[in-house]
Amino acid sequence: MKQLYSVIRQNTVLNRIFFAVILLCAGILVIRVILTILRRALQKSNLANGAHRLISSLASVALYVLLGLIVASSLGIDVTGIVALASVLTLSVSLALQNMLANVIGGFTLLSTHPFRAGDFVEIAGQSGTVQEINMSYTTLLTPDNKQISIPNSAVVAAQIVNYTSAGTRRVEIPVNAGYTAPVQKVLDALVQAGTADNVLLSPAPSAVITGYGDSAIGYCLRVWVKAEDYWDVYYALQQRIKEVFDQQEIEMTYPHLNIHMK
After folding, report:
1. Are 25 and 70 in the same domain?
2. pLDDT digits over 52-106, tens only?
3. In whole angstroms, what is the distance from residue 139 CA to residue 158 CA?
4. Cα(71)–Cα(58) distance, rounded to whole angstroms?
5. Which residues contact 104 (CB under 8 A, 6 or more apart)?
6. What is the pLDDT of residues 174-222, one digit of tens each?
7. How far is 209 from 212, CA to CA, in rounded Å?
8. Looking at the 3D structure of the chain, how many domains does it have?
9. Its pTM surpasses 0.70
10. What b-and-e string marks burial along 199-209, b requiring 16 or more CB atoms within 10 Å of the CB?
11. Same domain, 158 and 173
């Protein structure tokens, strides 16, 4: 009797192991199919590549953990304790790594909402530069003087973001001063003439306006529209061109001064 019971028990264990192996193989196959479908769906979405990798990784981990619990349960292992222990460990790790998790969540938010993309010139929390990379922890900017700045994603999400590139065009504004003796219309025409430079868009056309009256000069401003990538080249080119046009037309750029009349 004991031998019969032993044989039956052995067969039961073998059956469980055999069933668990089949379940494991089938589960791995199903997970691969699910992940393949998920990746194809993500490729058709508007999410960035970084978000694709994050979602795929999280889904893969969750599915394999679930499969492990199912296989363990099929072998007769009580998974209740394992789940409870995993919950406690997850909570402990979450508390210890809350800053990192906040950055990861911030990275996912940036990659899904697209306030900017790699290559955009932005201003974030007082820092300006071209976006080099958006990973799951940091956003990296490259400043015009070639300094690399890494900002935690949690800080990026909480900060005001100014994107100078997304609209495709930018307006260049050059403020200048001219003396009261110079005819106003002559100065305005000279500024518009200076604004017809290379890489300046003709629509909207360059324009010039009066911005104020100072103690010793009238304030003017030249405004032109350019493609976002041409902004700095045009900005510095106009600084030189305005001075050249003013010299040609004998328009004086004044500076703060005081006239004293003696009687």
Report:
1. yes
2. 676 777 788 878 888 887 887 777 776 666 666 666 666 555 555 566 667 777 8
3. 13
4. 20
5. 54, 136, 137, 153
6. 999 998 889 999 999 999 999 988 899 988 899 999 999 988 899 999 9
7. 9
8. 3
9. no
10. ebeeeeebebe
11. no
